[in-house]
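Weekly sync notes, structure subgroup
Attendees: PM, AL, DS (notes)

Item 1: joint prediction request from the bench team. They want all four components modeled as one assembly rather than separately. Inputs as received:
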Amino acid sequence: MDFKEAQDRVDRWITSFEEGYWPPLAILARLIEEVGELSREINHQYGSKPKKDGERPAELELEIGDVLFVLVSLANQQGIDLGRAFQRVLDKYERRDRDRWTPKQGAGPSRSA
Amino acid sequence: MDFKEAQDRVDRWITSFEEGYWPPLAILARLIEEVGELSREINHQYGSKPKKDGERPAELELEIGDVLFVLVSLANQQGIDLGRAFQRVLDKYERRDRDRWTPKQGAGPSRSA
Amino acid sequence: MDFKEAQDRVDRWITSFEEGYWPPLAILARLIEEVGELSREINHQYGSKPKKDGERPAELELEIGDVLFVLVSLANQQGIDLGRAFQRVLDKYERRDRDRWTPKQGAGPSRSA
Amino acid sequence: MDFKEAQDRVDRWITSFEEGYWPPLAILARLIEEVGELSREINHQYGSKPKKDGERPAELELEIGDVLFVLVSLANQQGIDLGRAFQRVLDKYERRDRDRWTPKQGAGPSRSA
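Output from the run, pasted for the record:
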C-alpha cells in the first residue's frame, strides 16, 4: 500500500459518516491518546511497567497502526500529501543530520541515492 | 511512495551509521518530542497560542513528516510491517466502529470496498 | 498539601517497594500514557470523540491527578525540588512573557507581587 | 509552596490578561508541547539523542516546571482542586496497586499512614 492509497482509504472511511473529519485540535487529542497507548505497551515490553493481573498483552503492531491512522487523518484534514511530507523529511535529514552521526566505513548513503 | 519503500529508505539511512537504531524507549521519547512540535504548530494555527516575535512559522507538512519518520523508525526497529499494521487497523475500524458514527445516506463504504 | 509533602508522600510509597524508582525513560513513557488518558477524556468532554457504548466517564480530576503523580515521581527520581522548579517558571513567565499578552486595564500583576 | 498557592499564583497571572484561560483542547496542546520538550531533554541525558552542535543544555528542573505550570492552568480552567486530585490518586494507589509491587521487608507504608 502506498501513502496515497492509505490517505484515500482513510478519507473514504471518514467521509462516509456525517461527522466527517474532526477539527485539528481534536485530531491532535486523539493522536496523543493513541501515542499514550503505544507508550504503555512499549513500557510493558521494554521498560519497567508490569502488566496488571489479567491485563491483555497489546500488540505493538496494532498500536503503531493506530497512531499511523490518526496521523493519516490529520494529513487528510489538512490537505497534506503524506508522501511529499515524508520525502521532504528524508531530504532534510540527508542535508542537515549528515554529520551528526558516525558513518559506517564505506556504508554511508550516497548523495545520489 | 509505498510503506515498504518508506521503511527501506529509513532503514538505509539509519543503518548507514554506527549508532544504528535506538532502543525502543529512546525512539518513543523522540516520537513525543516530534508530536510536541506538531502540537505547538497546531496550537499556533488553530488554538490559542500566539507566535513569539520573530518566531518562524513551522509547516505542518514538515511536522507531520517528522512524526511519520520516527514512527517508521520504530516499526523498523521492531520488525513491524507498516502496511500490514495499517491494514489491520482499517479492518478493525470497519468491524468495530461501524455503528459508532452516523452513515451518510447511501454513502457508507461498501463491505467489498 | 504543599509540594514538599507531595514529594515525600510519593517517595514513601515508591521506596516501600523493592522495585523503587524506574529509570527516567520508563517514567517518561508512563507520563505519556497518563497524558494520553487525560487527552482522551478532554476529547470526550470538549472535543469530538463520542463515548463507546458502556464506556464509563472518567473524571478529569483523577486524570490530572495521575499525571501529577508521575511528574512528582520524575522530580523525585531526579532529585528536583518541585516548589523551586515551579517558582523558577513563574519568574520566567513574569520576565519573558509579560508583553506577549494583553494586560487588563489596571489588573496586571504588580512586579512586586 | 502548597498546591493552593500554586493555583492562585497561576490564576492571578493568567487572569491579569485579556486572553485569560485557553479552551481545554488548546491547554492540552500546550501540555503536549511542554511534555515534548521534557522528553527531548530526558532523551539527551538518558537516552540516545546527541545534542546538535551549539544546542544549549536545557534543565530538567525547568522542563518539569513548565509541564507543572500547564497542568496547574488546566486544573484552574476546570475548577479542579489539585490537592484533592493528588490525594485521591494516592488513595487509589494504596488501595489498588498495593499488591502490584514487592514490599520491602518491614518497610511497606502502613495502611494508617
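Discussion: The CA atoms of residues 30 and 53 of chain A lie 27 Å apart.
Action: AL to compare against the crosslinking data before next sync.
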